[in-house]
Design a protein that fits this description.
mainly alpha, 7 helices, 78% helix, Secreted protein
Length: 181
């Protein structure tokens, strides 16, 4: 009888220890899960703030550029193009820049991936004015930090323009190799 009681106590004690260990592990797991969820929530919140800031930046860029397009006296403030280029052509370059920056911001905010950006730009570069703009803005792109994302996109576009120039087909939509993310 004593042996049974002793065995029952040992078994009860072991069961209690196992129960406590399980509860402790479950509690730790819940804390880890809660921490992971909080980290994910913060990351998503940061992404939303970043996208909102990019959208604001794009709106501001457009508003400032639209004023420069409409008012030549304001355009003179930001006009870094060769002065031998006629004023009307420089205004077209401002507008081409607005489109380029718009597409770049769509890419930066995650709305377009790199391949989609490439495909849109391939279409835009069918315009002779857009090509002239790209050539005329070469010096501006040269000031970008070589390792920046914007400089990398510029090099991608330079390659696209070379491919379009060297293409032996009128089917521009198949020219070049879109990058994959």
């Amino acid at each position: 009888m004593v042996t049974r009681k002793h065995s029952a106590r040992r078994l009860g004690s072991a069961a209690l220890s196992l129960l406590l260990a399980t509860a402790t592990l479950a509690s730790r797991q819940r804390r880890r899960d809660a921490t992971r969820l909080e980290e994910r929530r913060l990351a998503l919140e940061e992404l939303a703030v970043r996208r909102k800031a990019l959208a604001h930046q794009q709106r501001m860029h457009w508003e400032l550029l639209a004023r420069a397009i409409d008012d030549p006296s304001l355009a003179a403030v930001i006009d870094t193009y060769d002065k031998s280029i006629p004023a009307e052509k420089r205004r077209q370059f401002f507008y081409a820049n607005a489109w380029y920056v718009h597409l770049y911001h769509l890419y930066r905010s995650g709305i377009l991936n790199r391949e989609e950006l490439y495909e849109y730009l391939r279409e835009f570069f069918q315009s002779p004015v857009f090509r002239e703009y790209w050539e005329a803005s070469k010096a501006q792109r040269a000031t970008l930090h070589e390792s920046s994302e914007e400089a990398g996109i510029g090099r991608m576009v330079d390659g696209l323009v070379r491919d379009l120039d060297e293409a032996e087909t009128d089917e521009w939509w198949v020219v070049g190799e879109p990058p994959s993310d």
